[in-house]
Amino acid sequence: MGISIMDTDLPATSPLPQVPRVRYTDAGGRVHEGWYAFREARQTCPLGNDRLRPGDCMHLIVSDGLADWNMPRDVRVQAIEPDGGEVELLGGGAAGCRLAAENLLELLRGLPDSLARELATRAAEECALWIDEIEEDE
């Protein structure tokens, strides 16, 4: 379970707050899953009125590469490109419910009202499913 957004809705010059893991399905249908990372690709100048622009920043997925048993694995980094793909913020169970709510509140602040309303509705539905799972376990 997670919250899905279009990759074109990601903030241009700031990281997604408190997002530990994501699944990215690019426009070609390839799926990438791993730890979310945000990268400022250039250093801003402390003198003057310099600020980051959308092309200066990247949303990334960091994951482990494949290896034979007992062999070291490399680290793979995949950029989330605004190519029409979809990003899913991963989380689940009781622990994921609070994280998903915090993520959603931060995300909604920067989105148009119609998209924010749709995401809020979907998040509420998913939280209801998590509550059902918790109650079943008790």
Coarse structural class = alpha+beta
Total number of strands: 6
Average pLDDT for all residues: 77
Largest sheet strand order:
1-6-2-3-4-5
Number of helices: 2
Shape descriptor: globular
| Unreliable segments of 5+ consecutive residues | none
Helical fraction: 25-40%
Spatial gap, N to C terminus: 20 Å
Q: Which sequence of SSEs, written as H and E, runs from N to C?
A: EEEEEEHH
Estimated share of beta-strand residues: 25-35%
Describe it for me?
- The model has no long low-confidence stretch (mean pLDDT 77).
- With 138 residues, the chain is an alpha+beta fold.
- Strand 2 (21-25) and strand 3 (31-40) form a beta hairpin.
- It has a 6-stranded antiparallel beta sheet.
- The chain has helices at 93-109, 113-137; strands at 2-6, 21-25, 31-40, 57-64, 75-79, 86-90.
- Helix content is 30%, strand content 28%.
Characteristic terms for this protein:
six-stranded antiparallel sheet, 2 helices, alpha+beta, 28% strand, single chain, 138 residues
